[in-house]
Amino acid sequence: FNDKPLQGQRWLITAGPTVEPIDPVRYLANRSSGKMGFAIAEAAAKAGAEVVLVTGPVNLLASSAIKRIDVQTAQQMFEAVKSEFKSIDTFVACAAVSDYRPTEAAPQKLKKQSDNGLTIELMQNPDILKWAAEQNAAFCVGFAAETNNIEEYAEAKMTKKGINVICANDVSRKDIGFSSDNNEVSVYYKNNGAMQVERLGPALKTVIAQQLVSFLPGIK
Ligand code: C5P
């Protein structure tokens, strides 16, 4: 029995939300707690991998064996991923990256305009996972938070981003996903061109993470 099956491997994991400034006191963000990404990082480290965890702002601690890089914006997350993307065996994109950011963050606090609404122009953020897959250098795992047609969207996302695996969770359910400690994940991957699915949970995110970390190397 080998309790360090990932010895010698380097895993890069993104976690948490990204936070995109609107002005010095306001931002655009999302409900990601970072729990799933942190749990995967811990499970991979426990299994012997060298782990780099790039995370948006979260209220979580990572054990000292993990190299943690804290970022705020999607652009900062992208820069950190690019600079750590060396000899990576597995890249797990668990972060809820904001698809858009304000085109310009106002240098001063925005003032209320009398009677009028306010329009904030947004521009697209880089797709970090898509970039990672394009490097053709690591086994790339993505997450998908969907509320409907989960399987269909998961497959489309896999193809569009050129990734090996997509872990889908149903965020329309209150008892799993986002801030919850529990999750239920459908792991989609291809075997000789045919879609396969492995269902993990419902279980604690820490348990799902351990199952995922032991399952992934087998389909690599
Ligand atoms: O396209 P969508 O946001 O639904 O895809 C989700 C997956 O892509 C997640 O694994 C997420 O971490 C990753 N992603 C990314 N960079 C983005 C958007 C999403 O790495 N800009």
From TrEMBL:
Organism domain of life: Bacteria
The record's keywords, sorted A to Z, are: Decarboxylase, Flavoprotein, FMN, Ligase, Lyase, Magnesium, Metal-binding, Multifunctional enzyme
What does the record say about how the cofactor binds?
A: Binds 1 FMN per subunit.
Q: Where, in this chain's numbering, is CTP bound?
A: D99, K109, P126, D127, I128, L129, F143, K157, K161
Q: In which pathway does it act?
A: Cofactor biosynthesis; coenzyme A biosynthesis; CoA from (R)-pantothenate: step 2/5; Cofactor biosynthesis; coenzyme A biosynthesis; CoA from (R)-pantothenate: step 3/5
Query: What cofactor does this protein call for?
Result: FMN; Mg(2+)
Give me the ranges of the annotated region Phosphopantothenate--cysteine ligase: 11-220
According to the UniProt entry, its GO molecular function terms are: FMN binding; metal ion binding; phosphopantothenate--cysteine ligase activity; phosphopantothenoylcysteine decarboxylase activity
Q: Does the keyword Ligase apply?
A: yes
Q: What does it do?
A: Catalyzes two sequential steps in the biosynthesis of coenzyme A. In the first step cysteine is conjugated to 4'-phosphopantothenate to form 4-phosphopantothenoylcysteine. In the second step the latter compound is decarboxylated to form 4'-phosphopantotheine.
Stated name of the protein: Coenzyme A biosynthesis bifunctional protein CoaBC
Q: Which organism is it from?
A: Kangiella koreensis (strain DSM 16069 / JCM 12317 / KCTC 12182 / SW-125)
Write the span of the intact protein that is present. 180 to 399 of 399
